[in-house]
Each structure stands twice: as C-alpha cells, then as structure tokens.
Amino acid sequence: MEIKEIQETWWHRLIAVVLGWFWLLASLAAAYFAWAVSEKTVYSYSWRLPYAATGHETTCEPSIYYSINESSFFCGEFRDARSAVDDMVSIGYITQSEQIPTPRTPVSDARVLEAVSKQHPIKTSWEQRISWPEMRKNGGYALLFSIVLWLLIAFLQKIIFYIAYGARHRIIR
Fold first, then answer.
1. pLDDT of residue 119
2. Confidence band (pLDDT; 50, 70, 90) for 5?
3. Average pLDDT of the residues in 49-71
4. Distance between CA atoms of 62 and 59, rounded to whole angstroms?
5. For residues 75 and 84, what is the distance between their CA atoms, to the nearest angstrom?
6. Which of 128-131's residues contact partners 24+ apart within 8 Å by CB, and which partners?
7. Element of type H or E holding 99
C-alpha cells in the first residue's frame, strides 16, 4: 500500500496554531496555579516572643455581644476568643488560675482578651511567602501536566488527520 502525500493547506496550519495556543495557555495556567498554591500566609502575634512586625500589622480586639451571650474575635489564624486564650495559656503569656474565670464562655474568654489588651495591645502581623519545597513539588506537577498535554494534543492532531485522510498519509509543505 502506498503512502499518500497531502499538500499542507490553511486548515492544517489553523489546527496547529489553535492546538499550540491551547497548550501554551493551559501550561501558563498550570504554572500560575503551582505558584498560587505554594504561597502561604505567615502570621506572628504580639504574645508570642520574639514579635517583630513584618508585612501588614493590625490590632486585634474582641467584640462582645452581651444580649446573646456571644463574642467574636478574629486575629490572624484565630477565629474565636477561646482558641486565642488557650494559645496564650499554653505558652505562659497568661496564667489560667489567675485570669480565666470558670465556667468558660465565649464572653468570659473575650473579657480576658480585653483585660490583656489593656495591658499590652494584642497585635498580629502577616505576610505572604512562597514555600519553596511546595513550589518545587507543584512546579513538577505543572511540568508533568504540560508534557502530558503536549502528547495528548499531538495524538489529537493525528486523529484529526486520520479521520480526514485515512491511515497512510504524509502532509508535505
């Protein structure tokens, strides 16, 4: 059986350009995703020594809602007053027996934080950092994705030409 020689036409080049741009955009998206996933927020708190304000700094104040016996406290990774008070107790910043009333409620924990912040303002600072081990791992996945996608696109192009011209053909310029 003889190999048919097919002259390259405009739609052959169009398929190559469309698939090439698709590969390029998908590879760039994978690289961006690898970078974005590797970015971590690092927090530091004024009650954890040594504290040095890096990046963005803010003062953390609890909000107390006496009418419903609730409180809210958002400070970096801490989403409630109880977890912040437990952290302060665990590192010895405040002593449990002296300053924390029992039974503990959201309001009592927020009042403890209010008392602490009157003596020493409760602050947090945060900054975005790239985790290089994560970046290497995710960059490897992005590269693998790009290579596999390139192979799939080459296979797809072969299938399109097989459907159009049959099994034994060669495109010449």
1. 86
2. confident
3. 87
4. 10
5. 8
6. 128/39, 128/40, 128/41, 128/42, 128/55, 129/39, 129/40, 129/41, 129/42, 130/35, 130/38, 130/39, 130/40, 131/38, 131/39, 131/40
7. helix 96-99
